[in-house]
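Appendix B, Record 12. Input sequence as logged:
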Amino acid sequence: MDILAKVDPDASEMTQLRFALGFGSMEEAKGALRESAAWRAGPGKAIVTAAKEACERAMEEDGKWNNDAVRDAAPHASVINQFITPRNILTVPTESGDLLYVIRASVIDDKGLMNTISVEQMVDFFAYVKEVHSIVADKRSLATGRLCSVALVNDIKGTRQAPDAKFSKALTSSSKQYENLYPTLAGPTLITNLPLILQAFASLLKPFFPKTVQERLKFIRAPALAALDDLTPLSANAGTRKVFVDEIRKLTSE
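Logged structural output:
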C-alpha cells in the first residue's frame, strides 16, 4: 500500500486497496493508478469535482440521500435529464452495502437523446455516474467492513429494437475505462428478462461482451422486475424495492 501511496499521494486508502486487489501484479496496479491519477487531474477533473460536491450535498440532510442533488449536477444535465429519469435508470442500494445499477432500455428514447447531444457528452455523463457510484460504494465499504461493488442490471423487458448506434458507442467507450479507473468496483452484469426467443441462444450472445464482463455475466429471469411498467416503484415504494433486491440476491446466489 505504501508503494501505491507514492504513485498517487491523493488516493484514499480505499482506492489504494481496490487497485492493489484489482490487478495481477503490483506493476500493473501502479501503472493503472498512475493512469487514473492523470485522468483525475486532467480530462476527468471537472467530472470528479462535480461528483464529489454533488455527493456531499446529497448526504447533507439527516443522512438521507437526496438524489436530485446528484442528478442536477451531472454533466449536460439540462438535456440528459429530460431522457434519463428514475423511470428508466436507477441505482438501488442493498442491505449488504452493494449497489444495483438498473437500466430499463425500452423506456429510454435513446435516439431522441442522441439527436440532442454528442457521443462525447454522453461519455462524460456515464463517467460522472461511475464516479458517484465509486464515492458511495467506498463509503458503504467503510461502513460495512466489506468491499462493496456495483452490479449492472440490464433489463430487456419491452425491448423491440437494437439501441441507437451512438448511444451504444458512448456505452462502449465508457466501459473501456471502467476496469482501469475503478478496479474491483464492477460486480456482476445481469441481463434480465431476455425475450423467450433469445433465451435459448443466451450462450451465443456472451462473446459479444468484453472478456472482463463475460466472467461476471449472467442471463436471468427476474419476475418482480418484469412486473413493473417502469423503474419508478423501485425508488418510490420500499416494499417493491425490497422484493426486487431480495429477488436479485436469490437469483445471483443460485
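The radius of gyration is 18 Å.
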